[in-house]
Every structure is written in C-alpha cells, then in structure tokens.
Design a protein that fits this description.
It holds the Pfam family TetR_N. Keywords: DNA-binding, Transcription, Transcription regulation. The chain is mainly α. The protein has a domain at 65-207: Tetracycline Repressor, domain 2. It is 69% helix and 0% strand. It has nine helices and no strands. It has helices spanning 13-32, 40-47, 51-57, 61-88, 94-111, 113-120, 126-148, 159-178, 192-207. The relative contact order is 0.12.
Amino acid sequence: MTDLPDMRKPKQDRSRVALERLMSASREILHEGTFELLTIAEISKRSGVSVGSIYARFSGKEELFVAVMIEVMQGLDAEWQGLTTRLRERHLPLRQLVPALLDMQADYLRRHAGILRPFMARADDERIAGIGKATYLKNEQTFIDLLMDSGVDILHPHPQQAVKFCFTIAYAALARFLGLGSASDAAGEGDWDQLKKDLGVMCLSFLMSPVIEEQQ
C-alpha cells in the first residue's frame, strides 16, 4: 500500500511557528474556496509571514498547496484510524456494525468536505492524484479490515470483494452528495440522513445475501 510522503518540519521554534501559521492560513483559504483563491499575497496577509519568507520556503503556491495537502491528509488519516479503532472496540454484531460504519464514514467525509473539494478539483495533477489515492486506499483497507473481522457472519461467497464493493459504492454516493471531485453539479441532491440509512441497509443486505452465482 502506498503511504503518504512525510513533510519535514523545521527544527527552530521561530521557523516552526511561522510554518504553522502559513499552513493554517492556507488551509483556511482552501476551506473557504478553491485553489485559485490561494495566493501568496493572501497567505502572507492572513499568516503574518512576509512574502519573501514564504518564497524562501516554497517555490510558489503549487508547492505550498502540495505541502498543505500532505499535512491535511495525514491528519485525516489519523482521524479515520482513530474512529475505526473506537468502532472496532465496541464489538458490534455485523447487523449493527455495517450501518454504524457507513454512518461514521458519511459524517467523516461531510465534516471535511470543504477542504477536500479543492484537492479533488486538482486531481489532474499527478502529485495531487497520488496523494489522494494513497489516502483513499488506506481508508478503503481499514474499512475492509474492520468488516472482515466479522467475516464469518458475511454470507456473500466472496466476502472481501463484497466489502470492498460496499466501500466503493458508498464513497461514490457520498462524494456525489457532497460535491467532491467531478460530482460538484450534483451536490446536495436528496436527503442526507436518508442516504446514510439507505447505504447502511444496502450494504448490509448485500453482505448478508448468499448470492447464487450463474453457472458458466
């Protein structure tokens, strides 16, 4: 599995504080809008770090954007791992675990949709796409591992494949509602609570169904 690249932190306190202000200001701007709104001048204004100091650290806003994305994705990954760990510790039966996991995944994505939108909108950049894919794959694997802990209760003849499919379908439906990536025009269509409930029911039904495969 591909891991997110590490971002080196400055060792001096003053440099570290300045970098934290830069990153915080950049995240704030991105959360409010798009990549186009992320300008060196606006970052400098909000962070209190001079334009010259910003260019001393980054070649331009493209490099800063990548650094911000790496930091954000590392934070989101840590949060997702924590959420799934706590859910695992509840030792829920599959019939309760699946809806709880889908509900948790939905609220996690909605909570961070604002910062995810500008990242996904830049998926044509190979570096951005690579970082995003690494996070997606880690989340997917954690989702699979959690449900496969209850694999003996899954009646589908191919449990791991079925669980992966549930993650794929759920993620696509949630991303569409939240306007992530190419689904921006469909943002907000339907009822959020009903969507979460339906995804839970759908995935549970799929996993609990002993699908009869057609004879070749």
